[in-house]
Task: structure prediction
Amino acid sequence: METRTLGRSGITVPPLTFGGNVFGWTIDRQTSFGMLDALVERRLNFIDTADVYSAWVDGNQGGESETIIGDWLKKSGRRDEMIIATKVGKPMGGDKKGLSAGYIKRAVEDSLRRLQTDYIDLYQSHDDDQSVPLEETLAAFDALINEGKVRAIGASNYAGPRLAEALRISEQNGLARYETLQPKYNLYDRQEYEQNLAPVVTAHGVGVINFYALASGFLTGKYRGREDAAKSRRGNSVVEAYLNDRGIRILHTLDAVSEQHRVTPTQVALAWLLKRPGITAPIASATSVEQLDELVKALALRLSDEDYRQLDEASAWK
Result:
């Protein structure tokens, strides 16, 4: 399988990131273990999670995804085969939030304990905490790298100017820099990334592991009318956000291209992303091995220049 490098970190990953938010949320522990086994078998060994996953579920408090991954790592003994990315900064209850040096130092120990490992491959700021100086946050991350607890760092949900400022501060102070950015980007949600973030990541060689690669499932084609909102827990929000003239136009184009290649809209939407400038490994999730195999097939799909032109035109935001 083709591999790509996370920014300038030297860490190589497959061209697809598996979204670990499903562990402890939409799939239980046993199913999660089976999914993790399947990921290794298919050489999709890059998993993105966060300390806060999945605190939004009734009865959860955060840390469930990391705990399941950690238990599987211990059981399987396959830590060296996996690239584990996690995040810090979202509220975890009480004073457990943000990107202060003190909290980062506490939070990384909690994540390491849950993951049952002595290092994290990619440790990311989950949000931009503007209440803390960037110098403080970056120095704290730099210390973790020097201690061997973290291999590289990344940013999630940063605006273009703030990311550029963080990169400047790292360079000027000799600190570890954000090697990756995790923005919202897909065939529908294009404007913010392409207009404000792509110029920064391209200029600085930052890798991109974008979330919502399938627009919360809209680009799979499962939501065609308002009555389809009942198909999932997030159906109402998906229909409200995407089921409009532009969204329908995108679905029709996905249908046409997928029919021509005898594949699914999901595979076409991912194949479009995989060719976009600066994109390293889009994040996509699955709750069954069958869904996972559909994602894998997208990696082998080769769209024509005309396919890309049609998709670009249908989803144009300018």
Remarks:
- The chain has eleven helices and ten strands.
- The radius of gyration is 19 Å.
